[in-house]
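2024-03-11 09:14:02 DEBUG pipeline.ingest accepted 1 chain
2024-03-11 09:14:02 DEBUG pipeline.ingest length=236
2024-03-11 09:14:03 DEBUG pipeline.predict start
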Amino acid sequence: MLRRQIPNLITLGNLLCGVESIYASLATGDVVAAALWICGGIVLDFFDGLAARLLKVPSELGKQLDSLADVVTSGVAPAFLMAKLIEEPLRNLLPAWAVALAMLPFVLMPAFAAYRLAKFNLDTRQGHSFLGLPVPANALAWVGLALAGCSVGHAAEAIGLGALALAFDLLMVSEVPMFSLKFNFKDMGWKANSIQYLFLIGCAAAIALLRDGYALSLIILWYIVLSLITRRRHAE
């Protein structure tokens, strides 16, 4: 029984990281801490599934619990993070109705994330690749901006961020094929894993060029662009 609960405990750790991130955004206003808590939750999100496979204890309960945790850590927490990061500067630039309109894509982010996760749980087509932007990838795009100290100084910047958030919201629930980061360990050659290798090369280039939080956001954009370029191949 204890072995069966280990992946679930890791998943609950993911959820608690999301709660801590929300607390950091609301109570202390520390956006860096809030962003790092989200990163911690996403790391645990990777390890809960790995633990379930290694211990050979996958379960339907774990699958549902994982989605609930992701709604909090990768859906709700990034929305609060971005609200804390840009809402106050926006109030000095725009009237109240325009601030509400600019923030709407972020307010809706948890709803899109929840719908995407529920859809993923029921969709049998997403075994080796994804349909739509994975929720943790969306979260990391905004975490990168927070870690880089992104700020809004002009109304145009606010409009741009709102438009990008709306595009990411829609991409989460879209049917656009997105490749999986899993390698084919039976054949580590270029042909079997070319998309994954190209992604890693792009990641290394982004980190070398930027060396700050913006690199993380650029990596997610690279993931989306590479998925679009190679969609026919990994959708097969």
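2024-03-11 09:14:41 DEBUG pipeline.report The chain has a mean pLDDT of 86.
2024-03-11 09:14:41 DEBUG pipeline.predict end
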